[in-house]
Specification:
364 residues; alpha/beta; Rossmann fold; five-stranded parallel β-sheet; FAD; UDP-GALP_mutase
């Protein structure tokens, strides 16, 4: 078959490779001038490997997905750590026993930390929103110090207006584990994400066309037996039912030539001050050695490229209208965060892409 794949990020690239391996001819197009989607990384003019679209930290509990990507990259072992700044001081985040002890000048044991959370939490009979999740877990003071204003900046909405799943992604710990993730596999592509994508797409049956709008391809005279679409589902249907709400980001990159390090860990959150939500220093993530350093500040915005589907019930209702159209398509497969309007992690996108490729191969 001749197959058109729209988007050369994780979803599109993995499907492309799987179908190419099965003998199909692939044209992968992307509106950007590079492959790898939002995971695109590149050395800046100072020689430091940066993530152009903000930090991408790989982690998964899936041996299958880790082994799959291991065919295309070596790994640098890295466990991500985050600090949250409250009243000018840094604290471990997600909240753990050290956070409590440092913030409140306590000396709690693990059992006492569990008792503390039980004492301050505001039990919710029904946990429906992100606010419910956090209040039910850690109570109001920690909610207001670490979550409330960060969420408002990140999503442009009060936590009480967001579905519970947003906050449920962030654990609360009674031990002193200060890793952001606890997944079995935590590592970064040794030579960067872009090199990994180059390896995934390096197949004689795959042709890549960049700086190309998918609408131009669809209006061309090219004939395809099947289309794999990884962009915003509402754009595919020309916003027939209206625009699905997405949250965007603006990135402010900065190089600091006079210092080797800027901060103590990979990412520092600023929940209550400044317009940006967090600062990431890339050398922590990549293990690169350099005499200077590069950082990025993230500013959530309402306008710009779509990054995060906004998880609200009314948005899900609108998405289901588009999904009904997508489900009726026989020659188009929709896969990925934007096409499925899901807040996927990278490993989840890879898993969805592998499943999508399997279904296409079985069908054909």
């Amino acid at each position: 078959m001749n197959i058109l794949i729209i988007g050369a990020g994780f979803a599109g690239s993995v499907v492309a490779r799987e179908l190419a391996e099965a003998g199909h001819q692939i044209l992968a197009v992307d509106r950007r001038e590079h492959i790898a989607g939002n995971a695109f990384d590149v050395k800046d003019q100072h020689g430091i490997l940066i993530h152009q679209y903000g930090p991408h930290i790989f982690h998964t509990n899936s041996e299958r997905i880790f082994n799959y990507l291991s065919k295309y990259t070596e790994w640098y072992q890295y466990e991500h750590r985050v600090r949250g700044v409250v009243d000018g001081k840094e604290y471990p985040f997600p909240i753990n026993r050290d956070t409590l002890n440092q913030l409140y000048d306590l000396d709690l044991t693990e059992e006492q930390a569990s008792e503390y959370f039980e004492k301050v939490r505001e039990p919710k009979e029904k946990v429906l929103t992100s606010e419910d999740v956090v209040l039910n877990s850690v109570g109001r003071d920690l909610y207001e110090k670490f979550f409330l204003n960060y969420t408002k900046k990140q999503w442009g909405l009060d936590p009480s207006k967001l579905k519970a799943g947003v906050a449920a992604r962030i654990p609360t710990r009674t031990n002193t584990d200060d890793r952001y993730f606890t997944d079995t596999y935590q590592a970064m592509p040794l030579h960067g994400y872009t090199v990994m994508f180059e390896n995934i797409l390096d197949h004689p049956n795959i042709k890549i066309q960049l700086s190309t709008e998918f609408t131009d391809i669809l209006k061309s005279n090219l004939i395809f037996d099947h289309i794999v679409y990884t962009g915003p589902i509402d754009a595919f249907y020309e916003f027939k039912f209206g625009h699905l709400p997405y949250r965007s980001l603006r990135f402010e990159h900065e190089h600091l030539s006079s210092q080797e390090w800027y901060q103590s860990v990979g990412t520092v959150n600023y929940p209550n001050n400044y317009e940006y939500t967090r600062i990431t220093e890339f050398k922590h993530l990549t293990g690169q050695m350099h005499s200077s350093t590069s950082i990025v500040r993230e500013y959530p915005t309402a306008d710009g490229d779509p990054y995060y589907p906004i998880p609200r019930d009314e948005n899900e209702v609108l998405f289901k209208k588009y999904k009904a159209l997508a489900d009726a398509e026989e020659r188009v497969t929709f896969v990925g965060r934007l096409a499925e309007y899901r807040y996927y992690n990278m490993d989840q996108v890879v898993g969805a892409a592998l499943n999508a490729a399997d279904k296409i191969l079985v069908r054909k």
